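Researcher: Batch entry, complex prediction.
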Amino acid sequence: MDWLFFGEISLAGLAMGGLYALIALGFVMIYKATRVINFAIGEIMMFAAYLFLAFAGGMELSPWIAMPLAVLGGSILGGVIEKTMIRPMLGESPISVVMVTIGIASILVGVVEFFWTADPQLLPQFLPREPVFIGPLYLAPKIAYGFLIGAAVLVLYLLYFRFSRGGVALRATASDQAAAYSMGINVRRVFNLAWVFGSLAASLAGILVAATGGLSPQFGIIGLSVLVVVIVGGLDSILGALIAGLFIGWLETVAGAYLGGEYRMPATFVVLAVILVIRPYGLFGTHEIERV
Amino acid sequence: MRIGDAKQTYQADEAIWTSSTQKFWFSLLLLILLVFPFLANAYLLYLGCLVGIAVISTTGLNILTGFTGLISLGQAGFMGVGGYTVAWLSLNTGLPFPVALLLAGLMAAAVGILVGLPSLRVKGLYLAIATLAASVFLHFIFAEWEPVTGGMAGLSLEPAHLFGFTFQSDFRMYFIIVPLAVLMVFAARNVFRTRVGRAFIAIRDRDISAEILGINLLRYKLMSFALSSFYAGVAGGLFAYFYRVVTPESFPLAMSIFYLAAVIVGGMGNLLGGILGAAFMTLVPEILKLLTAALTPFYPNAPVFMSPMLEIIFGALIVGFLIFEPHGLAEIWHRIRRFFSLWPFRN
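Model: C-alpha cells for the complex:
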C-alpha cells in the first residue's frame, strides 16, 4: 500500500469533509430551531453558487465581492423560503413539511435551469493556484483554500452562536420553545434567523464546492451526502455534524480513489444503513428516539 | 339533492357502492375505459397506458404515505426492482406475464421489508432516509451487477405473452394495464375495509393510541410498506413490458418525487385522489408540450424552457397544494359533488 498516496487522498477527503461539516452545520441549525428536515439544502447551495457565477462571471465583479453578494443572496433566499413556504406549514405534520422542502428543491432546480441552462458550468478561478504541501503531502490548492475559508467561517459561526444575543436566542428556542417564548424571545424571528443562517453556511459551502468541482443543475445531489452526514452525526448535534462531516468526506474520497467513482455514494450509504440499525439517533444526537 | 340515503347499518355505511347513482356512473366509467382504445389515436393510447401505470404506483404510495403516514423516497427504486425482475424473467425463463408481474411485486415487497425493518422500528422520518439509501443502493446494483442487470446498457425484453398470445402493441398492453389498475385500486379500497387497513389509518392518526389499541406498530408499518412496494413492483413490471427496455436511468430519483407529487396533488389518504393525481401529473408534461408547440412560432426559444418550466411547475404544485389545498384534487372533486348532491340548496 502506498502510504503517501493514501495520505494525500485522506487529506483531500478531510478538506472536502470540512465543507460537508459546514453544510451540515447549516442543516443542523435549521433542524434544531424549527424541527424541519430540509431536503432543499443542496439546492440552496446550488442556487448560491449560480448567483456567484452570475456576479463573478456574468457581471465580471471581483470574486471577493461576488462571493459575499452570492452568500447574501443565498441567505435571503433561505429567509424568503421560510417566510413564504415553511411558515404556513407550522403545526402541520412533519411529512407535509418535508414534502414542501422537496417541492422547493424542484422549483430551485427549475429556476436555475431556466436562467443558466442545464449545461455544466465552470466557476471563475479565484483561489490561489500554488500547490500546497503539508509535509511531503500534496494537496490541490482549490481544495486547501476552500477548506481554510470554510473552516474560518465555521469558527466564526460557532462563536456567534456561543456568544451573541441572536445565538443565545436560537439555542434557547432549540432547547425549549415554550420557555423561550415566555422569556420574551421572538420565536418566529428565531425561526427565520435559523433559516437565514443555515442557508448562509450552505451558500458559502456551495460556492467553495462548486469552485473545486464545477457546477450543474444536478449539483444539489450533494444534499444527499449531507443528509448522510447529519444522520450519522445526529440530527441535532453540532459536534456530530463536524465530526461526521469530516469522516464522510474522507470516506467518500477514499472510496472514490480506491474503488472507483461509482462507489462514492454507496460507500457512505453503507455507513448510513449501519447507523440506522445500531444508533438511529446518530453518534452524538439526543436519545429522544421513541422505539415503537 | 340526494334523498332517501340514510344509512341504517355499519355495513351499509362501509359498502363500496352506497347508492345506485354511484353504480351508474361507475359502470359508465368502465364502459368508457373499455371503448377508449378503439376510438383513441396512438398518442392518446400511449398516454392512457402511462396513466394506468402511474395510477398503480401512486395508489401504492398512497397506501404508505396517505393512509399510514410514512414517507418513501424510493418508489422509483422499487419500481426498478419490479422492472428488472420482469426483464430478467422474460429473458431467462419465458414465464407468462401474470406470473412475472406477481413475482415482480413480491420481489419488490421483499426488498421493501428488508429496507423497512431497521427504519420502521423508530419513530420519525427515518423511512424517508432509509428509502433514499435504498434507491442509491438499487441504482448501484442496477448499474454494476452486469451479469443480471446488463449494466448501464440495461435489458431489452420480449413482449408480454400469455398462452401464446403476445402483447406487442400499445393497444394490446392497454388491456393488461388498465384492467390491472382498476383491480389494484379495488384491492386497495377493500384493504381499508379490513382490520389491516383500519390499523394503517389508526397508525397515521396517532401511533401511540394505535399501539394501545393493540396494533403491533412495527408489523403493520412493515405490512403497509411491503404492500406499497408490491404495488410499485407491479407498476415497474408493467413499465418494463410497456417500454420493453429497462436501464438504471429508467427509474431516477426524480420519478420517486413525481409519485410523491402525484399523491399530494391528488389528495393524501384518498384513493380517488391517487387516481386523479396520477392522471393529472402524467398529463401536465403533455399539456406543457402542447403549449410549447403552440408558442414556438412566436418564441423560437420556447422548447428550451420546457424542461425547466416542468421542474418549476412540479415543485410549485407540491408546495401550492400542501399550503392551499392539503386534501388535494380529491377535495375539489368532493366539493363539486357536494354542490350537486345538495342542489338546489346551499351548503
